[in-house]
TrEMBL record, chain B:
It is found in: Cell envelope. The keyword Transcription regulation does not apply. The chain crosses the membrane at residues 7-25. InterPro entries: BSH_YknX-like, UPF0194_transport. It comes from Metabacillus endolithicus. Residues 64-220 form the YknX-like barrel-sandwich hybrid domain. The keyword Signal does not apply. This is Efflux RND transporter periplasmic adaptor subunit. The lineage of its organism: Bacteria, Bacillati, Bacillota, Bacilli, Bacillales. Keywords: Coiled coil, Membrane, Transmembrane, Transmembrane helix. It holds the Pfam family BSH_YknX. Residues 164-201 form a coiled coil.
Length: 185, 415
């Protein structure tokens, strides 16, 4: 269910061109059908990631919470699923905002990317802060509330683990927004 | 959760989003934008032809009146009746006259004169053909023979194709002229033959191919009227159309029952209205247009729709009207190869049927944004919406495997 929802969300955002900035320049050299067909490949990549990310977020991350917090694995998975569902909801809400206001993910008004663009020059930090959104913070609090109450361990262990987990995911998404694939080729 | 906590949280969230929105839209915002382009259009090579349409009708190109050739004449008999078809040289009537000898002489001098004219036209055609073959096929610097150039009214900046087509038309016109002169010559020769045959009587012969429309039995002038087989188009212009029209303009006409479009030129515009000018009425003005190639089947009186070409630009960069903005100076938003939007000033040319010629500022193949609802900042990134209908298997196969992986990776990794 979540996978399907995630698939649809990613596909729709690609349909509207979100995150395809580095591809846009091809518009001048390619014929219309080449240009549009290339986007099908982008969509293919997006679909792979729509399977990859929920897997990492729900199944993979749960392993760590299970090890360190000593909560039954299946319960952690359920908590993580709720967290992920909430983040997905955030993406769905963000999508029309980006399209209608002509913004990109770094300038997402629900994120810290806007403030960071006034504070920093460096693009990496901007894309890092751009990937921290209000939805993440709420999801973090929700997950903390459930994990802390499920675990018999010190609640600060859960908080530290969660913050660490989110920090890593922000650093990675920040990096992914920063990377320009065409430069590598 | 206590109530005040949730209120504080809500205020913080709303304040946060509000600040962000303010920072995004304040002037000189530092925030990156990505314009979501819904529609765009490529600058294409097109012919832009400005035309207007009016109704016309096929009429004989000319009605020729035949007059008695000499004053002192004894009329013998008519050889044709009303409705008869005649060709050049067909005898029309017989007469005798003491002045026949001098007529003979006149005819002979006429023939020599016409022969001289034919030679002149032939020379001109030859020089046109020479010139035509000297035109290089590429559009580079073309040395235009100044005398011919003036005669043909060729624009110095015209492309070689345009020059060629102008010359072709001119040759065509000259050949028509030559044919007419030759016909005239045949007519004179026939007339001369007729005189020689019958010592003291002569016959008047027809000047053109056509149909006899009137025979004046009272022997008054004109004694016979012949309508030519060659057709022309006659019609009316409205006041607005009169302002745009000029003699010499090209036109096309669609006649009912005729598959091919008739091409022609505007020969004559009568600046005096058809009806007496009146304040409360729209005036109409007569025009006559010649047809380059005669229609095969359409008879006299066939109604046609005439579209007059008031201006044309062939093979020029053109763009959809919606892509051009600005009132005083025109500009377009170009989507360039760096994935950025750039504002470019352009110079507009002709505009017709939803397309506008770009004289300066944009070239064929460039992509421009179509009708943005708000003017986008320039030098920002852009992305485009997918057009699933345009996806083809063939295009997918054309990608190298390197490109395929590159684009899949962009989709996979980039956010």
């Amino acid at each position: 269910m979540l996978y399907v929802l995630c698939l649809i969300t990613y596909a729709t955002s690609t349909y509207f061109g979100i995150g395809t900035e580095t591809y846009s320049g091809n518009i001048t050299n390619y014929t219309l059908s080449e240009y549009e067909s290339g986007k099908l490949l982008l969509l293919g990549g997006k679909l792979i990631s729509s399977i990859l990310y929920p897997t990492l977020f729900i199944w993979f991350a749960s392993i760590f919470f299970w090890i360190f917090l000593e909560i039954p694995y299946i319960k952690v998975v359920i908590v993580q699923s709720f967290g992920f569902a909430f983040l997905l909801l955030g993406q769905i809400v963000t999508m029309p905002v980006l399209v209608l206001l002509d913004l990109n993910l770094v300038s997402n008004p629900f994120s810290f990317g806007v403030l960071s663009q006034y504070a920093f020059e460096h693009e990496y930090w901007n894309s890092f802060f751009g990937s921290i959104t209000l939805f993440h913070l709420v999801a973090l609090m929700l997950q903390y509330y459930y994990l802390a109450s499920l675990s018999e361990k010190n609640r600060y262990v859960a908080l530290t683990l969660l913050i660490l987990f989110y920090l890593i995911s922000w650093l990675l998404t920040g990096l992914m927004a920063f990377i320009k694939i065409p430069v590598l080729f | 959760m206590k109530r005040w906590v949730s209120i504080v949280l809500a205020v913080i969230v709303i304040g946060f989003i509000g600040t962000n929105v303010y920072l995004i839209f304040k002037e000189d915002s530092k925030v990156q934008h990505t314009v979501h382009v819904e529609k765009w259009s490529r600058v294409q090579e097109r012919d832009i032809v400005e035309t207007f349409e009016t109704d016309g009708i096929l009429v004989p190109k000319e009605e020729q009146d035949v007059y008695l050739p000499l004053e002192n004449i004894e009329f013998q008999q008519f050889l044709v009746e009303e409705g008869d078809e005649v060709a050049i040289g067909t005898p029309l009537f017989l007469y005798t006259s003491p002045e026949i000898d001098s007529l003979k002489e006149t005819l002979e001098t006429e023939i020599t004169q016409v022969e001289g004219e034919i030679e002149g036209v032939e020379d001109y055609i030859d020089s046109l053909e020479d010139y035509q073959s000297s035109i290089p096929t590429t559009t580079s610097e073309i040395e235009v023979d100044s005398i011919l150039e003036d005669g043909l009214k060729i624009d110095v900046h015209a492309s070689s194709e345009m020059i060629e087509s102008t010359i072709e038309q001119e040759i065509y016109k000259q050949e028509l002229e030559k044919r007419k002169l030759e016909e005239q010559k045949t007519k004179y020769e026939n007339q001369l033959d007729n005189i020689n045959e019958q010592e003291n009587s002569a016959s008047m012969v027809s000047n053109i191919d056509g149909v006899v429309v009137e025979v004046n039995k009272n022997l008054g002038n004109p004694i016979i009227t012949i309508a030519s087989n060659e057709l022309a188009i006659e019609g009316e212009f409205s006041e607005q159309q009169l302002k745009k029209a000029e003699t010499g303009m090209k036109l096309t006409a669609t006649a009912s029952g005729e598959n091919k479009k008739l091409e022609g030129t505007l020969d004559k515009i009568n600046p005096y209205p058809v009806n007496e000018p009146a304040i409360d009425k729209e005036n109409a003005y007569n025009f006559v247009a010649s047809i380059l190639e005669q229609p095969e089947t359409a008879p006299i009186g066939t109604k046609t729709t005439v579209s007059v070409v008031t201006a044309e630009a062939i093979d020029v960069p053109a763009i959809r009207d919606g892509a051009i903005h600005g009132k005083k100076t025109s500009y377009v938003y170009q989507l360039n190869e760096d994935g950025q939007i750039k504002k470019k000033t352009v110079e507009k040319g002709l505009s017709f049927d939803g397309y506008t010629e770009i004289v300066k500022g944009s070239d064929i193949g460039e992509v421009t944004m179509l009708s943005p609802e708000k003017s986008p900042q320039t030098n920002t990134s852009f992305v485009t919406e997918m057009k699933p209908k345009q996806i083809t298997k063939a295009a997918l196969k054309d990608f190298t495997s390197r490109e395929v992986w590159k684009y899949i990776l962009i989709g996979l990794v980039e956010r």
